[in-house]
């Protein structure tokens, strides 16, 4: 690797807001917020909305999405699609 062109990697705590889970890993992400980890050391903390702890693909849970209501609203606003002519 060329010296001086790569960002500095350091320990950072990522905190998943949806699941209430935190994990410590190395990252180049910058943050002004800090949090004390389990070993008593203070690390920068980055808040994320979703991670593997709360993502439906990894957890196997599903979320209810009102697709029917969205489709009805779309059709009301823009009309029904024209039928295909053959």
UniProtKB/TrEMBL annotation:
Q: Which Pfam families match?
A: Ribosomal_L31
> Which keywords does UniProt give here?
Ribonucleoprotein, Ribosomal protein
Q: Which InterPro entries match?
A: Ribosomal_bL28/bL31-like_sf, Ribosomal_bL31, Ribosomal_bL31_B, Ribosomal_bL31_sf
> GO CC annotations?
ribosome
Q: Which domain of life is it from?
A: Bacteria
Under the subunit heading, UniProt states: Part of the 50S ribosomal subunit.
Concerning its family, UniProt says: Belongs to the bacterial ribosomal protein bL31 family. Type B subfamily.
Record-given protein name: Large ribosomal subunit protein bL31B
Species the sequence originates in:
Streptomyces actuosus
